[in-house]
Each structure stands twice: as structure tokens, then as C-alpha cells.
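Hi D.,

Good news: the full-assembly prediction came through. Inputs first.
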Amino acid sequence: MSKTEASSLYNWKDVTSEFKNSCIELNIGELVKEPSFGLFEAMSAIEMMDPKMDAGMIQNQTQSKIKSIKEGIENKLLKTDDFSFEEKLTIVDTTLRNLVTWLDGSSLAQTLFTNLYLHEPEILDDTYMKNFCIAVLKIVDRMRNKINASGTFEEEDFQPLSYNFKFAEEISDNTVLSNLKSAEDSSAKIYRHMKSEVKNEEKKNEVDMTYGLWQRMRFIRSFFYLLSFNDEHKAFTNNSEEITKHINICLESLVKVKETHELGTKPKMVKVGKTIYPVVMGFEPTINQRLLPPTFPRFIQIHSFEAACEYLHELFSKMSDLVKVPKMKTFDEIYNFGLQFSEIQSVFLRSLFQLIVLPRSMIEKGMAMKTLILNSVTKFVSPPILNPKCPINNKEACLQLVDSFLIKCTPAFVTLFQILGHNKARQREKIAHVFEEFGQFQDEADNLDSILHSYFVQQKLSLVHYGCFGSWMLNHNLSLMSQFILSGFELELFAKYECHYIYWYLCEIILNWQMSTLNRVDNFLMTNEINFLPKNAKKPKKRKSIFEKESLLKTAERHMFSAFYQAFRAFLIEGLIKSPKSDFDCEEFRYNHRLGPFQFFNTPAVCLYNQFKDKDEYFIKAYELNKIYGFARDHFDMARGIYEKHSECANQAKIAKNNFVVMRLLSSGLKKLQKIELDFSELAYFPMIRL
Amino acid sequence: MEIQKRNEWLRSLLNKSMKVKITDGRVLIGIFLCTDKDSNIVLGSCKEYTSLSAIESDSSEPRSIGLSMIPGQHILQLFTDEPILS
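Then the structure:
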């Protein structure tokens, strides 16, 4: 409120003593208030002078000597030129630390914008510092833009508020890039000049510092270049060499930056509240405190320089992994890559992945996704209708049907892909919501198959089309169900006494179906392959299934889940795993809660609790304990046999072997157990059993 | 009775602007909503200024803090807004 406004609007009269005297007259508990004002409203009032609730409390803020950049310059506390090498190094390094802290989920106000130079970089006279600051602002702006464009974050991942800070929008990207190039070249020149001039050992530090400054400028320039694309999807497809080159520059120069870090001035460690901040010329940790809402974490830890370097190193290494992505043409490939990739904590990388795979505009997203799905189907099940040699009469009409089926599926697949952009916990939550749609697609796919097959039959073609799109969708849905359950293990959601029905569902229902689906597809492919050959051709020899490796690994998995079901069931019987008191427990509720999301699928029909219970009871009644351990032992052994032949499954092989030994011991009945230990640390869904 | 009059006077201040200076020098301007025997005050639509001089010199933006409660023991001065009689 402006001065003239304030003074003309208000006419203050001091009533302190009158007020206090009037209040004293009130009774204890008596309030002076409007009848409509309730304590419910009062409950949310911030109590002033309470350190926890009052963010503006003077004692909560350091006595910041500088309230704004202009003030700092006037009071000669901030330089705009003639920075020493040490000063430059340390300002750059501290800014990088703040950048990483922001990327890790903190707010801009508490990290980057505690650097006053970033508020108004044009005020700086030193070209190196000015270019650096403008570059950092641009980098932050671009990262923010990408994260917001992807939209795959929640409040625990990223703070989108920018508090009206400016990000050097008036300067174009190209100008910045060329400025950075000249800054880089001049830092290189200074370094080489220093190197040749300085002969004595004492001045060696100076030479190293100019080297360090040059490397930092290189780093920032390549960093900005990598972020400067507006269309990541196109850029990563077409410019992958340039991108790889710049990623490598970043990684190389990062090493040199780390080496020269010690040469900068050491930041002063200032205590603010309960945290200690690194303070260097230009930084005021609490300058933006007033902008934060009261409930915000008041003081945050700024990452150490080593941690920041590690973070940045990981960022660029993973970015080079992303360069491979445009070469992936099927949805399945990309999705599986994404599952692995999304284990990274970095919301920026997850967003970048989203933007590389799918273009930004909604329409283009749909078109790109449709192609990816089509490629997936073709690779998996080779629908005869899509084969150019297919001799059907009404090909156009059939292809239209296929097209409309794909168009129907596309939005759900886009959603599914976007789920990969979220953190693991949110992924699980959101996948449960898409089950309903995918359940419906199963019916649509089966429908499409029967229509196409009926045309084939009508036209007396020997090709088959039943179980084509249907099998593909079924396999996809089963993988989703599997992912849903396994992520429950990864997030440590299941109690030990729940594991047995989880494992049972995995091996008896999900994997069972998946393996028979793969089998069916294999036969289907074989049949149609033969049918496409000209009449007189030799029938091809029985060849290996294209799913051989996948089937084998799934068989091993199934053995493992079987074994775990049996082992956990036995542990429950023996009381080695405690189950909750029956007065307070209902296994049916737990079962339905865990497996409830699967109710939307018709295939496989969700296995109800009573069906599970029947099978389970039969099993434990039919066999004595030793025999149950014996089954588990055999299953672990068979799994181990398969895993040992595949080098990438070394972990699983180790676990299988260990558990096999334990089960062998238990099945012999020689050892009476007091307790067992379950170690989920190697693989979240295959615990190591120890006595 | 005196007490009655004081009570009525307090009620007359309800829903009017009030300026409160608190012990650490900050000044809060808001709508007076509630008070009690210990002079704890609830202000609505409250704005926080860093000091009295800050309001006059217009050097800092006020921070909007919405609903706030000021414990009686932290109140240094209280001002009410009197209508200007021409």
C-alpha cells in the first residue's frame, strides 16, 4: 500500500491502555466477538511470536546485512567488478550447490534466489560473472519449463512457484549461447596466457584457478545448449551426435570443476535457526523468507559440493542413456526402459524422458503413441491382417477396424506412459486407476479378432485371426498386474503375513496365464507362418520359439513365486511368521484390499477369496510340513537351474541357491526352528531366507 | 455500569481495522475479530509490516498472513482507525 494511500486511508488513534483495561473486566473464558465467528475459524489463525508458526519472527531470520542487491552494492558489500579468482570460483560453486538443492525438490526462494546476483545480473560489470548468472537463470527457466510441460510431478517432487522472479526472458537463447561461447573462449585465452606467463611455483594456484574458471564456463555452456531445445522429441531424434558431444563435455568438465573446487574461498558457515548455511559474497540465505507460506519447511539443507557434483554427474550420465530412446520403436521397449529409468529420483530426468518420447502437442502425442502401439503389436503377434501379403478381399475395411481399435486404445496408453514420469509411489497409485480401461480394451480386442477371423473363414482363407490382438492385450494387462504387485514389494507395502497369498496370486494366476498366452502366440505365429507360404513350399522345420528366453525366465520366476508361497505358508503354520490376532483380523478383507484393483479385468477373472482359500486349505491339509518344505526346495532348485544359465540373473540365482539350501534343511526335519530372518535387501520381491 | 460501557466499547471495535505493534518491533494491520480477558487478539486479513517506519517510508511490501492471533503479552501498542471528521 503506498504512502499516500496509507496515510489518507487510516487515522490511527492509540487506544492501548483503554483496550487493556476493558479486557481485564471480562470474565475468564469470555470472548468479545461476532456471533458468527467461531473457534473453528480461529483454529487456523497463525499464532504470532510462536517460533513454529510465525515465519516472519525476527529471531527466525538472520540479521541479513543486505536487503536487496542495490543496497548491497551501495553499501559496498557486493562487488560488481574486479572479482578475484577465488571469489569467482566460490560464487559459481555455491550457485551450483543451490541449483542441485533446488532440483532435488526445494523451492527457488530458499536456494537459487538467495544469490542476489541472480536477481539482477545486468548490474554486474564483470562479463564472466554476468554471463554465468544469465546462463544459470536461463537453465533454471528451461528446466522449469520442461518439468511443467511434462506435468508428471506432485508436491513432494517439485515446487513450481517462481515468486515473480525474473529469468532473463528479454535475452534470446541464441544471444546467450553466443555470449557463452565468447566467454568460454576468453577464459581459455586467459588461462593459456597465465600458463605461459607464470613461471614460478608460487603462482601455480593462479594458473589452476583460471583453468577452473574456464572449465566452469565450458560446463555451463554445454549444459545450457542441452536444455535449449524447444522440441526435445525432434532434437533427440535428429541431433543425437551433437547432444552426445555436449553431454560428454559436461561430464569431462565436471571432473575438472571438482578438482579445482578447493581453490575458491571457503564459504562462511552461518547458523540460521537450526541449519547451517554456506555464505559467500552475494548470498543471503534468509532474504526471501517472507515470501514463503508459513507451513513451508523453514530452513533447508544446501547440498555439499561433493553431493552436488555427484548429482550432476548422474544427471548427465542418465541423459546419455536417454539418447538411445528415439531408436526404440515399440511401446513395450520404451515402457520397459522407462520402468527401469523411473527409479531415478530426479523429476527433471523423468520429465525429459517424457518429452523425448512423445511430442508436446496433444494431437501429435496421440499419433506418435498410435505408431508405437502398432509397432508393438506387429512385433509381438504379427497380425495377418497387417501383413501386406494377406489375400483378403476387404482389406481396406479391415484395416479401418484395426485403426479404430488402436485409436480407442491410444489415450489410455498415453496416460500409462505418463504415469512412468511420476515417482514410484505415485506410479502404483495411478496404475490401479487405469486398470478399468485396459480391462475394457481386452473385450474390444477379442471382438476385433472375432470379426477379422470371421472374414477369414468366410473367404475360406487358412489364416487364423483369433487370439491375435486379444493375446497381445492380455499379455500387456498381465504385465501391468505383475508390475502392480511387484511395486508393492518395492515400496515395502506388504506385511510378512500377507506375502503368501500375494505370491500365490502371482504364480497361480498371473504367471500361469502369461505363460499360456506366450505359448498360444507362438503356435499362432507358427500356424500363420506356414499359411503364408506358397502351396508347394516345404513345411519349415519346427523352430525355436521367439519367446524362448522370455518363457524360460518367466518359468523360473514362477518356480520362485511357487516356492515362496509354500515357504511362507509353512512359516505361518509353524508360527515363524506371526499373523495378527484373529479377533482383530480378517484375511478376506486383506486379500480383497490387496487384489481388489484386479476386479476390472475379465481375463483373467479375478480369483475370489473363497476360491483361493479352498485351494490353500486343500494344499495344507494334503501335505505335511516337511513335504511342503520339500516342494519349496524343489522349486528353488529348478529356478536356480534356469537362472544360473543366464548371466544377467546372477542375483536371482544367488537367492534361489541360498533358499534351496535352507529349504533342504527344513524339509529334512532335522532342525527345529526358533525364528527365521527374511532379507528383502537384494531383490525386493525375492527375499533371502536365513535361519 | 462502567464494565457494561467498556464491554460495549470493545464490541464497537469489532470488524474494524486495527493496528498492533508487537514486542519484536513488527506491526500488524488487520480486522479486529476477537479478544479475551488476557487481551489476546485475533485479526483477519492481516498484513505484516517490518516496523512502523517501514509503513511510512514504504520501503517494504507487507506480507499477507491472513488470519492471525496475537498473544496479549506481546502487544506493545494498539491503534484503532478513527473516522476523519471534516
